[in-house]
From TrEMBL:
EC number(s) on file: 4.6.1.17
Record-level GO BP terms: Mo-molybdopterin cofactor biosynthetic process
Organism for this UniProt entry: Enteroscipio rubneri
Gene3D superfamilies: Molybdopterin cofactor biosynthesis C (MoaC) domain (3.30.70.640)
Sorted UniProt keywords: Lyase, Molybdenum cofactor biosynthesis
Protein name stated in the entry: Cyclic pyranopterin monophosphate synthase
Keyword Electron transport: no
SUPFAM superfamilies found in the cross-reference section: Molybdenum cofactor biosynthesis protein C, MoaC
Subunit structure: Homohexamer; trimer of dimers.
Catalysis: reaction(s): (8S)-3',8-cyclo-7,8-dihydroguanosine 5'-triphosphate = cyclic pyranopterin phosphate + diphosphate
InterPro entries tied to this protein: MoaC, MoaC_bact/euk, MoaC_sf, MoCo_biosynth_MoaA/MoaC, Mopterin_CF_biosynth-C_dom
Chain's gene name: moaC
Length: 166
């Protein structure tokens, strides 16, 4: 059995940044997603390109990439990474396409790096910020939007190898 422990907590219980200096550089990838639910009318406004602030999905994609690149500035124990890939996809979802019947935007973020530590936090941050950007750009017409289902779908690389959500 593998002993599991919190890597960002030392033997005294203090937080610390993990020392990864002895680890080899490996190719790593992570995929995360998020969903922002909204009124069908709000989704129609986005898809028609009629939002007052401009192209909502283009702005969300750019914001997600920017967030991935700045994750270590937001999450205290994250290492700064030289990201080699950051892709944010935003897809409209209508009510009959989800089990919960919600309408909205599905955000999927893929990040890659060749380095000593994983890139999961960058993918998760990108998904979160892309969803927040949609909210910011559409809040004037729909303050009831909800951001949900921010989660890791896949990570690959490093000592632990492949993990995928079932």
């Amino acid at each position: 059995m593998i002993e599991q422990h919190l890597t960002h907590i030392d033997e005294r219980g203090d937080v610390r940044m993990v020392d990864v200096s002895a680890k080899p550089d490996t190719e790593r990838v992570a995929v995360a997603e998020g969903f922002i639910s909204m009124k069908p009318e709000t989704l129609a406004l986005i898809m028609e390109g009629a939002a007052a602030k401009g192209d909502v999905l283009a702005c969300a994609r750019v914001a997600g990439v920017m967030a991935a690149k700045r994750t270590s500035e937001l999450i205290p124990m994250c290492h700064p990474l030289n990201i080699t890939k950051a892709k944010v996809e935003c897809a409209p979802v209508v009510a009959n396409e989800r089990p919960d019947g919600r309408t909205g935007i599905q955000v999927t973020c893929t990040c890659g790096v060749t380095g000593k530590t994983g890139i999961e936090m960058e993918a998760l941050t990108a998904a979160s910020v892309a969803c927040l950007t949609v909210y910011d750009m559409c809040k004037a017409v729909d303050r009831g939007m909800e951001i949900m289902d921010i989660r890791l779908l896949k990570k690959d690389g490093g000592k632990t190898g492949l993990w995928e959500r079932a």
